[in-house]
Amino acid sequence: MSINEQALGKIVHDLQTKLQEASRMVASVQAQIQSREREKRLSELTNKELSALTPDTVTYKSVGKMFVQEPLPELTKELTERATEMDSDMAALEKKRIYWERNKTEAQGNLGELIKQIQQAQQAP
């Protein structure tokens, strides 16, 4: 194997590694986004159910394995803040997803182009 072929092999390997990493990161970020969406939906649904209660209703909040009494206004405020926090988390994760999608597309294009050039070089002689 010539040095040129070894260099090409290393470049192909590096591009494949970059593509695999980008694909893995895209999947990871998408899973995180889905998790945040579920958490936001749960907070919103809980808040909707709590809004039907009178303000003087005794409510409890789960803390680990126990429940702690929490005034209804504080509980609804906490749930609203949690939903807002999930929105900001999802926006940041969406930016990460776009970044990794771009890296993945770039790596796919580079790898395809390199393989095409290698095939053309092999057919030329």
Automatic annotation (TrEMBL):
SUPFAM superfamilies: Prefoldin
A molecular-function term among this protein's GO annotations: unfolded protein binding
Alphabetized UniProt keyword annotations: Chaperone, Coiled coil
A Pfam family assignment: Prefoldin_2
InterPro entries referenced in this protein's UniProt entry, alphabetically: PFD_beta-like, Prefoldin
Claim: Coiled coil is one of the keywords in the record: yes
A GO CC term attached to the entry: prefoldin complex
Coiled coil residues, start to end: 12-39, 76-124
Domain of life the protein comes from: Eukaryota
PANTHER family for the chain: PREFOLDIN SUBUNIT 1, PREFOLDIN SUBUNIT 1-RELATED
Family as reported in the entry's similarity comment: Belongs to the prefoldin subunit beta family.
The protein, known as: Prefoldin
Organism name: Linnemannia exigua
